[in-house]
Amino acid sequence: MRFSIAVVIRLSICGVALICTGLALTSVRAELILCNRTSYRLEAAIGLEKRVTIATRGWFRVDPGDCRQVAEGALETDMVYLHARTPPAYGSAPTPPGRAELCLRDGDFEITNARGCPVNEQARFSPAHPSDSPKGPTVYLAEEANYDDAQARLAGIQRLLTIAGYDTYPIDGVQSAKTQAAIYKFLSDHKLPTDAVSKPEIFDALLQAANNPEGAKFAWCNDTKYTVMASLGIVEMGAIVTRGWYRVPAGQCLRPDLRGDPHQLYSYAEAIDVHGRTIRQGDAALSWGGTIKLCTRDGKFESSDHKDCAARGLSTAGFAVFDIGNQPSTVVRFREP
């Protein structure tokens, strides 16, 4: 099994799961604004092309429902490119359709020649088409749900609350009694004032809770020195639906996004090396699972039919089953033998 881990799991730009809105501009003449109308905290890098040269810079953190200036001053730019990623707490996020391979780095960076670096320092950027707005040329990142700013912010809070173990499903950006109760419980559990939910710092608090497995309904914790890719199965409408892959970095925990209130979960995971190849110990993969055979495949997937996996071009893995209905917390720890 092979996974691409050259960069962190990313949201797609102008794809099925994430949509860029706006009319193309042939030249950006003022500061560039990035607005996040998704339910994910994004870290973005931009590429600015002028004639035959592309410069990249990043990272710019933009919370759900928020906007941020990512370039300032007069720009003579022929094309804008965008690459976005999400924190590991989100697990399996939508994948990018980007086709421009450009340079980037961890931490704050600015690269004047974004094509002049080794392949392992490149990531896929997508063309972004700024719109005219009162703030200046603006790139909007949106999900198919087509949230406005307020709905995106609430959906972002709902998503992180769900990962942190609070019941706010469905994630829809709509205020409800269930969502309000989950928010109040989160604020109470973490001894935060009632107005904290209206402040930017709420996303820091939510991500911290999402990364902390204590009290989680279900969480994976990676106690190995390797990155682990995990898959989750949940019973929906009488069928086991498997989804993956969730990236669990070494030494970190991840609470997958549980849909509804499941009483039983299925889990399978494999350790991978820096090139995305499965770690092997002797003839066997370094993996954690059980005896329930379910379908998986390389890359992002969702499967509810587990008959004849190979005939449909899928792989088969042995999942472990966990009864979580009567348990306050279930933590699966990945350890080396």
Quaternary structure classification: single chain
The Rg value, from CA coordinates, equals 21 Å
Number of strands: 22
Number of helices, where a helix is a run of at least 4 consecutive DSSP H or I residues: 3
Biggest sheet details? 7 strands, antiparallel
Whole-number tally of structural domains: 3
Structural class: mainly beta
Q: Which percent range fits the helix content?
A: 10-25%
Percent strand: 35-45%
Shape: globular
Order of helices and strands: EEEEEEEEEEHHHEEEEEEEEEEEE
Low-confidence stretches: 1-17, 22-29
Q: Average pLDDT value?
A: 84
Distance between the amino and carboxyl termini: 20 Å
Which keywords apply here?
mainly beta, six-stranded antiparallel β-sheet, seven-stranded antiparallel β-sheet, about 325 residues, 3 domains, 3 helices
Task: Break the fold down into its secondary structure elements and pairings.
Blueprint: E1 18-21, E2 32-37, E3 42-50, E4 53-62, E5 67-71, E6 79-85, E7 100-103, E8 109-111, E9 122-128, E10 138-143, H1 149-163, H2 177-189, H3 202-211, E11 218-222, E12 227-236, E13 239-248, E14 253-254, E15 264-272, E16 280-281, E17 284-285, E18 287-288, E19 292-296, E20 301-303, E21 315-323, E22 330-334
Parallel strand pairs: 2-10, 11-22
Antiparallel strand pairs: 1-10, 2-5, 3-4, 3-6, 4-8, 6-9, 7-9, 11-14, 12-13, 12-15, 13-20, 15-18, 15-21, 16-17, 19-21
Helix pairs in contact: 1-3
